[in-house]
Amino acid sequence: MANNPATLGLMQSGSNRLDLAIGGLHPDVVSKMNGMPDAESDGTAYYMPAVGWAGKSGALTYGVGVFAQGGMGTEYGDNSFLGMGSGKNIRTEVSVGNLILPLAFDVTPDLTIGGSMSLVWGGMDLQMAMSSAQMGALAAGGNLSATGMGAAALPSFMGSANNVGYFDFSNSSDFSGEANSLGWSGKLGVVYKATKQLTLGAVYQSKTHLGDMKASNAQLSMIDNGGTMGGPVGATYTLSGDVAVKDFQFPSVLGLGLAFQATPSLLLVADYKRIDWSSVMKDFRLTFESSDMGGIKMDMSMPQNWEDQNVFSLGAAFKVMPALTLRGGANLANNPVPDDTVNPLFPAIVKNHFTFGAGYAFSNVSEVNASLVHAPNVSVTTPTGITIEHSQTNWQLMYSHRF
Q1: Among 90-99, 293-302, 355-364, which stretch is predicted with the lowest mean pLDDT?
Q2: Fewer CB in 10 Å around end: N or C, the chain?
């Protein structure tokens, strides 16, 4: 349901299936800079539930499911060098989830087509410090307008090398970000049984169509270390207002795959996916509007320039005994994030994954499956000399019941 809705047609007619799952994403992210203590992210555990039901009647299969499509975060705390001496928390959290409505139809006994529509929701928390020069460069990439006191204060603030800006829209919820939005996406898939042993599949997933992620209680703090705003050196000026993350989307995906039943006990699989990051991660755009200081509106743009990602997957499942199946595989991909635009708050640089899984059938209608995934450490260095290291160890547990 979450990958290729046409595979639901592989169910037997007249059957129903319920899946309950929980997964854990456990990243290990460290940012390093010469002469500074390492900044280790405390964002090490993100739990993602999922549930799905499908039933087949004749040639038609239908169902409903809720699935966590993706997301992660970083938690650097209030004393890392990434805070630039602000003493403030530095963190991000991004989440995207789906309510999926799939439909599959057996055109022939060997050919099934399927599609799904998804209600998609996204959320984001952001607490980010930046130098006044970085803040000015981001504002220069968009638009800056100010009236009253802000008309003179903002350019002066951005013109001093010692000043620090700080954006803050964040909450403590495990289920939604402070800024959030709704939208939709869709999938089309096909499964073809070429022979008794060989099954082929293909799927196209559209990019998400999310609205702008908005929060109404965001803050922009300006720490005036240069004394450029008329007050004492080191004074903090905080503006409250509305923030919008503009056109933040997950990309379209094209997937091809095959499954080969080499022996009654051994299944071999191979997949290829093309993930179109370049069309959705060109820039990270954020607007901030406040009535404080006479009125300020900022349209900021942070270059991302992500590259498309090619993902090759190989796997095998071996039935040790009628009730027990063991699985293993590898997922090999390129890092889509260029070194010159990677940010310690968005370190999506992992490439390869190695997997192990097992399934145990308690009966003909009840089974449990589990998986363990390790992504080896990837290290990149930004143009500003920050080295980011990222590895992951993840797991999933699923109970399935047929009736």
Answers
A1: 293-302
A2: C
Range of weakest confidence among 72-86, 190-204, 348-362? 72-86
Whole-number mean pLDDT of the chain? Answer: 93
Query: Which residues sit opposite 19 in a β-bridge?
Result: 52, 400
d(CA 142, CA 119): 31
Q: How many CB atoms lie within 10 A of CB 234?
A: 12
| Cα-to-chain-centroid distance, residue 43 | 14
> Per-residue pLDDT tens for 117-169?
999 999 999 999 998 888 877 776 666 677 766 777 777 787 777 889 999 99
Residue 298, beta-bridge partner list: 144, 288
Q: How far, in Å, CA of 157 to CA of 298, rounded?
A: 14
Nearest Cα residue to 253 out of 185, 341, 346: 185
With a threshold of 0.70, does the pTM exceed it? yes
- Closest Cα partner for 170 from 245, 267, 234? 245
Pairing of strands 16-25, 387-402: antiparallel
Q: Can you count the helices (H) and strands (E) in the chain?
A: 2, 23
d(CA 390, CA 377): 5
In tens, the pLDDT along 173-195 reads: 877 889 999 999 999 999 999 99
Q: How far is 100 from 66, CA to CA, in rounded Å?
A: 6
Question: What is the rounded distance in angstroms from the CA atom of residue 25 to the CA atom of residue 393?
Answer: 7
> Is the confidence at residue 274, as pLDDT, over 80?
yes
Cβ neighbours of residue 310 under 8 Å, at least 6 residues apart? 272, 273, 274, 275, 333, 334
Cβ-contact 352, 332 below 8 angstroms: yes
Measured CA to CA, the distance from residue 6 to residue 324 in angstroms comes to 26
Q: What integer pLDDT is reported at residue 141 of this predicted model?
A: 61
Kindly tell me the burial class for residue 393, based on how many C-beta atoms sit within 10 Å of its own C-beta (0-12, 13-18, 19 or more): middle
- CA distance linking residue 350 with residue 337, whole number of Å: 9
Residue 134: φ, ψ to 5°: -65, -40
Nearest to 215 by CA among 176, 249, 183: 176
Return d(Cα 76, Cα 38) in angstroms, integer.
10
